[in-house]
UniProtKB/TrEMBL annotation:
Keyword Nucleus: yes
Enzyme class: transferase
Phylogenetic classification of the source organism: Eukaryota, Metazoa, Cnidaria, Anthozoa, Hexacorallia
Protein known as: Poly (ADP-ribose) polymerase
EC number(s) recorded for this UniProt protein: 2.4.2.30
């Protein structure tokens, strides 16, 4: 192309993917720089200036990214490393590195002097490079116009650009009017089209990317009682629309399956405390109680997600959260507030040394405080490093106690870049918690929670081994709040001829089958393999390999080593099934195995299969008992069926060993009860179970809902998150501001099966049910849902009162009837005669009540079945002596204040006999003392019927309590 008479080769400059950075502190290390920019984006390379390691020389770098978004992010935001604000600008390699301009003219060597980097480039110039570039740009802008498209694939982006960004799009158009820029949205809102000069089009695209990158997201799980149901109603949807409009955001409600199983409580008749919903029982293999009763638990997961009063973060002495995996993860979850607070502390505090700690507020982490600790590197195994780590844990525990914490969550400190051996670090961690418990039994710290990163397989394996060894060597302390064991430890026997038992869970048939899984004819069977996919390891895998042939093994080998917890699907070779789903198992923990089985079921469902067979996972080589294996398999089935399958209609659990199958049948029957599928027949002795099941019947669909957690995701700009979330929670709080309190003495004696059903029903209806006092239940949620659960609680209370009434009647009869053992007689109640079998004599039988009813009572009416009615009310004649006695006593305090319209006699024989028995006992105990007083009590009309049937008790105290008897002297009867 001619330019001022010179032929010039013009090539389009590559998109800028690098930055030039200066302004570093003298003490900044290369590792800190690389870690910082790796956090910003997809880092490709960092080139340091030759003078980097020289004192009193400026430190400068060129950072190369893999995409242009990272450049935009780094140049837009402020950048801090070691407390210094960095100077960042885009760096164009083609200008200072390899730009070639060919034409007639002299040769000269160009050395880039701006950046301080020595990069020689041979160039041919007619005139100054800057002038040539300027003229090229002018030429292209004048002669060439281009078009561009920007796709809005996610619906979230379409919502923002169509509804919230019209003003921003207009501003871009105005700012780039000199480039002839035009911007338009297509009719469906899925595409932004723009045109103008090439420079203008590029700028539009960059600005659109910036607008898109500004759309962040933040989520929280719905834990507020009633929030789930409220947001699903029209009123809740209107609230969401209002919040979205006012805060320019988009709110999504999503569901995710809970990992933990449903309640695992026994069906005994012992009373059960209805505690808060937050308590979660873990597998016993992961739990240890010290002799002081303090709980030590460990699990695989993410420390930034642990919900505890205190979380511990491992940091370097410079307080830089960008360095280190633990600090980096916690910094991301906490938000910028955590790093900012540390930066302020650094200005007022000397640098932390090895073994030091400091605490801050948590930012967005689910805790009250964060304790930052500085560990030392491993230097070969002298006792100094071990002592520093032990002392570090002790300081963390001391600070947590000082802050009044009840629980503390700790990551596995020291095993990353610091180089501590896993066995040493884990051993010190466990011993530190136990030692602190013994030395500080009065500390408020009750729970020590160790969280090992789920991707750290070596850490998980070491914790399993060390924790198990520690439990064997130390006798556990008393376990608090333990659930009653539901399953026996000995094998559960089944009939020798047992072959199969099945139930229905929604649309899925669930079976337990005694047999050989290699002979199954399902669409797929499940297998257990190790990470290297070797089918010669493990009894089950070897049996399947022997039956299916070598083709499956070859197919597995072609896939290479797999991550623990993943699944691999292959053909089935010579088997009668279509597929084999191989579960890659890394450990024998309940949580890990359950996750593997759940993923295998989801994999089969995603393949469109209708039937799948599962072995007794864990019952052999993985070391779990029969009961433990059954819990793993059925725990996974519960989790997988929390949401209906798309294609699976039959799940068969195939158990080979007869000694194991009993545990699986027990689990199947337990699931049958949970889902309400054809309850087994009950004897009359189980009336309390029948009454609770009748009062609290729930459909299978309702019971499966409780296994799903809902999450609110807010999409928008950072400054809108807090306001949007607060508005949502305030709206829910206003709608759910009417809790219900139920107080009754029978509540403290409710059987476990009744309280279990109440808790399940409350979760289904999104109501929080807990027991602040032994005889009190408190309900929180939407008023309608609260009233539904209130009705269920009332039904249970009523049924328990009837059971109590029957027991009292039986007790009265036992006292009123004289029993003769082996008395040879035949009694004909129709003729009221008794025949003595030994002598043949016939005698007349007359009934004599030990506690006769009052003479003035009318005969008790009988119902259709011929039984006497429980309650009968008789209106007294005004001229009767009974009427006059009551009238006289009433007017002693109420004359001139009230008039009598009617007086009724309450005839309730059962309540009368109960009262007289108690009076008789008191008379015998107190002798001649006056044991009976009469008192008139103001009562609401709707309570009268209840009192007439059930009697008067303290649960009926209310608006009239003490109204007329404040000065009335009452003598306490002993």
């Amino acid at each position: 192309m001619p330019l001022d008479g010179v032929k010039v080769l013009i090539e389009r400059a590559p998109v800028c993917k690098s930055i030039y950075v200066s302004g570093f502190s003298e003490n900044t290390s290369k590792e800190a720089v690389e870690s910082y920019f790796d956090e910003i984006g997809a880092l490709e390379d960092v080139v340091f200036s030759p003078s980097w390691d020289e004192e009193e020389k400026p430190k400068r770098v060129i950072v190369y990214f893999k995409d242009k978004k990272s450049v935009k992010k780094s140049t837009k935001d402020q950048n801090f490393v070691d407390g210094k604000t960095l100077h960042v600008e885009a760096f164009y390699p083609f200008m200072g590195k390899s730009a070639k301009v060919k034409g007639a003219g002299q040769h000269q060597s160009y050395k880039s002097g701006d950046s301080g980097f020595s990069e020689n480039t041979s160039m041919e110039f007619k005139q100054d490079v800057a002038e040539a570039v300027k003229k090229m740009r002018d030429f292209l802008n004048e002669k060439k116009a281009t078009e561009g498209e920007f796709r809005l694939d996610p619906s979230i982006h379409r919502k923002f650009f169509n509804d919230y960004y019209p003003e921003e799009l207009q501003k871009i158009k105005e700012d780039l009017s000199h480039c002839g820029v035009r911007i338009s949205l297509d009719e469906g809102g899925h595409l932004i089209r723009f045109s103008g000069t090439e420079e203008g089009v590029k700028e539009v695209e960059e600005r659109l990317y910036i607008l898109q990158d500004d759309i962040k997201e933040k989520s929280f799980h719905i834990g507020t009682p009633g929030m789930r149901n409220f947001l699903a109603q029209d009123e809740g949807k209107r609230l969401i629309e209002t919040v979205e409009r006012e805060n320019k955001c988009v709110i999504e409600i999503t569901e995710e399956t809970e990992d933990q199983a449903e309640d695992d409580e026994s069906d005994s008749d012992e009373p059960l405390s209805i505690g808060s919903e937050g308590e979660e029982e873990l597998d016993e293999d992961d739990t240890f109680f010290t002799s002081e009763g303090k709980k030590v638990i460990w699990r695989a997961g993410n420390i930034e997600e642990e919900q505890a009063d205190i979380l511990v973060c491992s940091v370097g002495s410079k307080f830089n959260l960008a360095i280190g995996a633990i600090a980096n993860a916690m910094s991301k979850a906490a938000g910028p507030e955590l790093q900012e607070e540390l930066r302020k502390l650094k200005e007022t505090t000397v640098d932390l040394g090895e073994g030091d700690i400091i605490h801050t507020s948590p930012g967005n982490l689910p805790c009250r405080y964060v304790i930052h600790c500085v560990c030392c590197p491993w230097k070969g195994g002298n006792h100094e490093e071990e002592q520093i780590l032990r002392e570090l844990y002790r300081k963390c525990f001391d600070k947590a106690s000082e802050l009044g914490a009840c629980s503390i969550g700790l990551p596995l400190v020291g095993t990353g870049n610091l180089g501590f051996p896993y066995a040493t670090a884990v051993q010190i961690m466990i011993e530190a918690a136990v030692d602190y418990s013994q030395a500080n039994p009065e500390s408020p710290l009750e729970e020590f929670r160790f969280v090992v990163f789920s991707g750290d397989q070596k850490g998980i394996t070491t914790f399993e081994e060390k924790f198990g060894e520690f439990k064997k060597d130390h006798k556990p302390g008393p376990k608090h709040r333990q659930r009653a064991a539901r399953k026996p430890t000995t094998p559960t026997p089944v009939a020798a001829e047992f072959q199969c038992k099945e139930i229905h869970v929604g649309h899925v048939v669930l079976k337990v089958l005694k047999g050989d899984i290699t002979k199954e004819k399902s669409d797929a069977i499940c297998n257990v393999v190790t990470q290297d996919l070797d089918m010669n390891i493990g009894t089950l895998s070897r049996a399947i390999f022997k039956a299916c042939g070598s083709t499956v093994e070859e197919e597995l080998k072609s896939k290479g080593s797999q991550r623990p917890g993943s699944v691999v699907t292959t053909s089935a070779g010579s088997l009668s099934v279509k597929h084999i789903v191989h579960m890659v198992v890394g450990s024998g923990t309940k949580q890990h195995l359950q996750t593997c089985v759940e993923k295998a079921l989801k994999e089969a469902d995603s393949l469109g299969l209708r039937s799948v067979s599962i072995p007794a996972v864990g019952s052999r080589g993985l070391g779990r008992t029969a009961e433990g294996s059954a819990e793993v398999v059925f725990g996974a089935i519960r989790a997988a069926t929390a949401r209906p399958f798309n294609s699976i209609r039959e799940v068969t659990v195939v158990v080979f060993e007869a000694s194991v199958i009993g545990a699986f049948v027990v689990e199947l029957e337990a699931m049958q009860k949970e889902t309400g599928d054809s309850y087994p027949d009950c004897d009359e002795e189980d009336e309390d179970q029948l009454c609770c099941e009748g009062a609290l019947e729930a459909s299978t669909d309702e019971l499966t809902k409780k296994r799903c957690r809902q999450k609110v995701i807010v999409h928008g700009q950072l400054e809108s998150f807090d306001a949007a979330m607060a508005a949502l929670k305030d709206g829910v709080a206003r709608a759910c501001s009417d809790p219900r309190v139920i107080k009754h003495e029978i509540i403290s004696r409710l059987p476990k099966r009744c309280t279990r059903e109440l808790k399940r029903m409350s979760r289904v209806r999104d109501v929080k049910l807990y027991q602040p006092e032994p005889d009190t239940i408190r309900l929180e949620g939407l008023p309608k849902d609260v009233m539904d659960i209130n009705s269920e609680v009332s039904n249970v209370i009523q049924e328990q009162l009837e059971i109590k009434y029957k027991d009292e009647r039986a007790e009265q009869m036992s006292k009123n009837v004289q029993w003769y053992l082996n008395f040879k007689a035949e009694i004909n109640f129709g003729n009221k005669e008794v025949t003595l079998l030994r002598t043949g004599a016939i005698k007349r039988v007359l009934r004599k009540d030990v506690l006769p009813l009052p003479d003035e009572w009318d005969p008790q009416p009988r119902d259709d079945s011929g039984k006497p009615e429980i309650l009968h009310l008789v209106s007294l004649a005004q001229e009767s002596q009974e009427y006059k006695v009551v009238q006289e006593k009433f007017f002693q305090s109420m004359r001139g204040k009230a008039s009598i319209t009617n007086i009724e006699r309450i005839q309730n024989p059962a309540m009368f006999n109960s009262y007289m028995l108690r009076k008789q006992t008191m008379d015998e105990k107190n002798g001649t003392l006056e044991n009976e007083l009469q008192l008139f009590h103001g009562t609401k009309p709707d309570s009268v019927t209840y009192i007439n049937v059930q009697g008067f008790n303290r649960s009926l105290c209310g608006i009239n309590a003490g109204k007329y008897t404040r000065q009335y002297p009452v003598k306490i009867l002993q």
